[in-house]
Amino acid sequence: MVKRLPVVAAIPNFNMADNLRNLIPQVLAQRYDGVFVLDDASTDHSVDVVGEYGGEVRVVRSPENRGAGANRNQIIDQVGDEAIIHFIDADMDLKTAETPAVARQVIDRYADRGVGVVGGLVTRLDGGQEYCNYGAVFSLWGNFTSNGPRLIDRLREKPRLARAVHRAAAPTMTGWPNVLEPPAPAPAYWVHEGNMLVLSGIFRSVGGYDSKLRHHEVQDLAMRLEKRGIKTQFDPSIQVVHQHIDVRGKNRNKWAHEATQYLIRKHGLYRFLTDR
Hints:
Elements: E1 7-13, H1 17-28, E2 34-39, H2 46-51, E3 58-61, H3 68-72, E4 84-88, E5 92-94, H4 99-110, E6 115-123, E7 134-135, H5 140-145, H6 147-154, H7 159-169, E8 186-188, E9 190-191, E10 195-199, H8 200-205, H9 217-227, E11 231-242, H10 252-267, H11 269-274
Helix pairs in contact: 6-7
């Protein structure tokens, strides 16, 4: 890399104070050029936890709860155009040593391919990779094919059956990871935003996430990046373990349904029906 880009950790948070107390020391030990907690109007003691680390961590707090995408956008005004943003969800454990150095290497590795976003590896507590580390385009076909990886993931404890299902469904699962095999680098349409590298200038240029979305926001971001010719890549070099704290709760299905309708209106019914 010709220029050493600063790497900043951006930790979106909503009511995960105890998780922050676990994650922040891991991040501070890795010598990022800046650490920000993006708080979506938490009602717990998250801000107090961040305050325990003094000036080492800066909290950027929304005055109202706006959802994950709008919350992540708070990082835009905190960094310049020449930086690498590492989004790490608050309910993650960081497992890669020297992450900022690895982040620079990873971004540099794909720079000549027009890649501006790189998703890292998200694993579960049992060590298996999450089936949604990356995925296909948001469309009727993409939504349908997501059922294959989801089903195989549920069958992991029955490996013979899981492999049989994978063999049968493999032709329809282009663009999704094979959770039965070790994770490997692959071009992706969208990646898991809980462990994601993005060049700050690119993120700012597209306006970040669509703040109207509380679900499917990363798929929308991917579609807008594609229109600009910016590519996305999955690379397992940076690994996190997901504690999987669900703060969306009973609203998850409602927000997913509303987001689907909104994205169809925004990007067009024809695209939704035909894109693959």
